[in-house]
């Protein structure tokens, strides 16, 4: 654990707590400690996770410390440390967006009912934020950076200041961002966005990976220097920039960078205080949103493309399913992930020259997963569906509608991805064959998906990031992995045919046959799977409702 | 509606233990009982949303589990504690539910417009249900349950968390509905409400029916249904006690 400064925090505007008020800072720090302790006492699993992460982070921090010390004297030491710190600052700014519930003392709206003034509260919350794994890690990084770039007594003296400033800027940044976003995160639209943010990270990681490979190809750390030259003026990296400047003897630059850091800290604290005050006195944003007059009078939508849908239950179900793909945050993020990964894997592999046209089947595989746990996606609103299914025929119409909605997106998308991949690889001869395989796989996924939706339904929690309730992890695994294995087995004939046509003499000329054959096979599988799933669905309505209502 | 020997057990806990109940048609029936008495469980089993361990339920002469098609077409349900398709707007929800029920599209739209008007939801019809208040959710749920003109309507806590204005609106719609000969069965723990609305009452406690019959019969000698109810569930003599003598009076 880091040491906890219980005295006044430097640079925090000194607001008199006033005689008679409780010493807030030690109180809040103790609150944080007991929350941490109680959280760990709650379950052995959580304790294990916390201790493991503590050990891992400490280990990583120590290794990094050693690495930074070893870097001392290296020509690129300043660039590397500045970059690391800038990344660290970015991490602190982004973290509260993704883990809003990670820190109980973080959410100031819980303290709304207490008679607290903003300034002492800000000081106390800042002190409490310094307790934890994250600040410890940052401290190690800062100390290591100072050791790595500081030369001479003056530089080390500035270094001590830099460590304190850097740490405080990081923590204040996180708090200011968190407070500014509490309003967003407590409103419905904000939470909907937050669910999508995981996707941004997943896709972003692919691009970072791509960029890193490019950098690796360029060789050496020289490309980093111009970036670092800019970043050394951006707090919290500016603090380390100051240490480096002192080492080089340019005291003016050091003073400017230190001042910049201090100003950033003061600015962040002021911003935080202002948001906090507004948060505690202004009404919740979500109710304001709800009170907005319905400005978007677009009832015309039902008259548009919806008119092309078949009448009766199937069309109704398709319309609702498609609306949910767009409007329900969980469904939307699942779809967006599938769509993104479905194109990234084959196309990026093709771009990097390591791809194969067969990777294009990834698209239909990823999208076929959406057929699994159809009723879990409804949550307990499934009762409306259950109340209106009174025979296997109704259930069949329901399943057909859902499969059709899925196909309306998947079929064009999988075709597009396949064509794109073949175009990138220039393997046009393989196109019909891969398309046929894709369709066969899609059919197998739809068939097994429909069946396991009826047989192994599970709840999808609507809040937070989990996609399965803890008690149903087993069911979810059976549903998805069992289903995927079954789908692979079902599409085995198509795969076998493709292999046979490829190895047999003269088979190449007949490979186009796989397109109609694969499409027909996939369609047959889908029809059969839906027909098998329908009576099961109709017979198990109460059980399905019970299973999907746990979220 | 006939219920015979209805049982439901969740693990160790028996939620409903052997209910026998005959409810007359064309009445406003109140199912009352304290929290945890098994009202929601009973209503879920009667409407086919929860499979009973034992027992039979017949509505208008059709068994709920053997002949679901005949029963589901005749009943409307507003459950408690289950979501709606809340990412649809109020109007879309009605249009979706009505079409699932097999009502022709044009008819659904006509009825939806009228229901939205009567229930005072016309101004919010294009807003997503997720942004509705509790009272609005109950009203849109009621509209969805009424859309196919059912013979019997089951409402679980329809007035829970509803403001007085919305409650009055709901009440007006229900009174008009029963006046035409339809049956409403609703659960509640607000006795005054049940007393003023219902002409038939069933009292539940700890998974059993303690009393049922016409309102006057269940009330008996007691001055109000509240008193009769407290006696029936055996909570009559309990008072706030003298332990909280510090409470009130302005001191600290």
Notable features of this structure?
heterodimer, A: about 550 residues, mainly alpha, 21 helices, globular, B: about 250 residues, alpha/beta, Rossmann fold, six-stranded mixed β-sheet, four-stranded antiparallel β-sheet, 9 helices
Description:
The complex is a heterodimer of chains A (551) and B (252). Chain A is mainly alpha-helical. Chain A has 2 domains: 21-205 and 220-281, no CATH class; 312-548, no CATH class. Chain A has helices spanning 24-42, 44-71, 77-98, 118-129, 133-149, 153-186, 188-218, 224-231, 237-248, 251-281, 285-291, 313-327, 329-351, 361-368, 382-388, 392-425, 431-455, 473-490, 492-503, 514-539, 541-548. Chain A is globular. The model of chain A is unreliable at 1-20 and 285-303 (pLDDT under 50). Chain B is an alpha/beta fold. Chain B has one domain: P-loop containing nucleotide triphosphate hydrolases (Rossmann fold), CATH 3.40.50. Helices cover 35% and strands 24% of the residues of chain B. Chain B has helices at 39-46, 68-74, 90-100, 105-118, 134-146, 164-179, 191-197, 215-219, 225-232; strands at residues 2-10, 13-22, 28-32, 54-59, 62-63, 75-78, 152-156, 183-188, 200-205, 208-214. In chain B, strands 6-7-8-3-9-10 form a 6-stranded mixed beta sheet, with helices on both faces. In chain B, strand 1 and strand 2 (13-22) form a beta hairpin. In chain B, helix 3 packs across helix 4 (105-118). The longest helix of chain B is centred in the C-terminal third of the chain and has 16 residues, at 164-179. Chain B is globular. The chains are: A mainly alpha (551), B alpha/beta (252). Chain A binds chain B through residues 188, 289-290, 293-294, 296-299, 302, 311-313, 315-317, 319-320, 323-324, 327-328, 378-381, 383-391, 541-543, 545-546, 549, and chain B through 47-51, 68-69, 71-73, 77, 79, 81-88, 91-92, 95-97, 99-102, 105, 123-128, 130-133, 144.
């Amino acid at each position: 654990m880091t040491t906890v400064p219980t005295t006044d925090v430097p640079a925090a505007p000194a607001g008199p707590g006033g005689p008679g008020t409780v010493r807030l800072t030690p109180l809040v720090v103790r609150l944080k400690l007991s929350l941490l302790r109680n959280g760990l006492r709650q379950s052995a699993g959580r304790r294990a996770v916390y201790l493991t992460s503590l050990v891992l982070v400490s280990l990583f921090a120590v290794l990094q410390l050693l690495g930074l010390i070893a870097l001392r004297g290296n020509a690129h030491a300043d660039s590397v440390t500045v970059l690391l710190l800038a990344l660290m600052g970015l991490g602190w700014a982004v973290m509260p967006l993704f883990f809003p519930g990670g820190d109980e003392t973080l959410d100031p709206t819980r303290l709304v009912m207490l008679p607290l003034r903003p300034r002492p509260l800000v000081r106390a919350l800042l002190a409490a934020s310094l307790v934890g794994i994250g600040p410890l890690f940052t401290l190690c990084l800062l100390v290591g950076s100072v050791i790595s770039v500081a030369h001479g007594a003056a530089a080390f003296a500035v270094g001590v200041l830099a460590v304190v400033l850097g740490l405080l800027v990081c923590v204040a940044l996180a708090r200011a961002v968190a407070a500014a976003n509490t309003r967003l995160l407590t409103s419905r639209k904000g939470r909907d966005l937050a669910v999508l943010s995981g996707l941004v990270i997943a896709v972003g990681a692919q691009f970072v990976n791509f960029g890193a490979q490019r950098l690796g190809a360029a060789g050496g750390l020289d490309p980093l220097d111009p970036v670092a030259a800019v970043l050394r003026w951006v707090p919290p990296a500016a603090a380390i920039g100051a240490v480096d400047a002192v080492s080089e003897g340019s005291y003016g630059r050091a003073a400017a960078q230190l001042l910049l850091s201090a100003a950033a800290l003061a600015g962040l604290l002021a911003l935080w205080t202002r948001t906090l005050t507004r948060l505690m006195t202004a009404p919740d944003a979500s109710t304001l949103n709800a009170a907005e007059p319905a400005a978007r009078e677009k009832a015309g939508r039902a008259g548009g493309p919806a008119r092309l849908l078949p009448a009766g239950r199937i069309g109704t179900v398709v319309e609702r399913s498609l609306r949910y793909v767009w409007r329900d945050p969980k469904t939307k993020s699942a779809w967006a992930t599938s769509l993104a990964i479905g194109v990234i894997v084959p196309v990026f592999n093709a771009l990097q020259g390591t791809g194969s046209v067969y990777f294009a089947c990834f698209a239909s595989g990823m999208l076929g997963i959406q057929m699994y746990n159809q009723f879990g996606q409804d949550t307990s609103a499934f009762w409306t569906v259950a109340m209106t299914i009174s025979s296997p025929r109704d259930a069949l119409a329901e399943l057909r509608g859902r499969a059709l909605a899925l196909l309306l997106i998947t079929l064009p998308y999988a075709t597009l991805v396949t064509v794109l991949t073949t175009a990138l690889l220039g393997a046009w001869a393989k196109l019909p064959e891969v398309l046929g395989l894709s369709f066969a796989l899609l059919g197998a996924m739809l068939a097994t998906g429909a069946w396991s939706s009826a047989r192994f339904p599970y709840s999808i929690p609507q809040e937070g990031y989990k996609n399965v309730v803890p008690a149903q992890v087993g069911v979810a695994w059976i549903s998805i992995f069992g289903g995927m294995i079954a789908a692979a087995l079902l599409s085995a004939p198509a795969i076998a045919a493709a292999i046979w046509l490829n190895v047999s003499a003269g088979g190449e000329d007949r490979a186009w046959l796989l397109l109609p054959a694969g499409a027909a096979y996939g369609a047959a599988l889908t029809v059969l799977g839906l027909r098998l799933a329908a009576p099961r669905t109709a017979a198990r309505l109460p059980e399905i409702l019970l299973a999907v209502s746990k979220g | 509606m006939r219920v015979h020997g209805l049982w439901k057990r969740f693990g160790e806990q028996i939620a409903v233990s052997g209910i026998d109940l005959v409810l007359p048609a064309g009445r406003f029936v109140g199912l009352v009982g304290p929290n945890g008495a098994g009202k929601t469980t009973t209503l879920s089993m009667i409407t086919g949303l929860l499979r009973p361990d034992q027992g039979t339920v017949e509505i208008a002469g059709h068994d709920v589990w053997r002949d679901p098609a005949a029963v589901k077409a005749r009943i409307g349900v507003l459950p408690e504690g289950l979501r709606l398709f809340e990412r649809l707007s109020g109007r879309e929800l009605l249009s979706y539910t009505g079409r699932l029920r097999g009502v022709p599209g044009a008819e659904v739209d006509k009825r939806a417009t009228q229901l939205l008007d009567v229930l005072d939801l016309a101004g919010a019809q294009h807003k997503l249900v997720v942004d509705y208040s509790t009272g609005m959710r109950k009203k849109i749920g009621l509209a969805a349950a009424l859309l196919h003109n059912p013979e019997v309507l089951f409402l679980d806590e329809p007035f829970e968390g509803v403001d007085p204005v919305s409650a009055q609106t709901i009440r007006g719609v229900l009174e008009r509905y029963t006046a035409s000969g339809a049956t409403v069965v609703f659960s509640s723990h607000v006795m005054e409400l049940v007393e003023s609305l219902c002409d038939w009452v069933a009292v539940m406690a700890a998974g059993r029916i303690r009393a049922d019959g016409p309102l006057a019969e269940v009330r008996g000698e007691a001055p109000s249904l509240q008193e009769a109810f407290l006696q029936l569930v055996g909570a009559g003599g309990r008072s706030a006690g003298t332990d909280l003598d510090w409470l009130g009076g302005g001191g600290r």
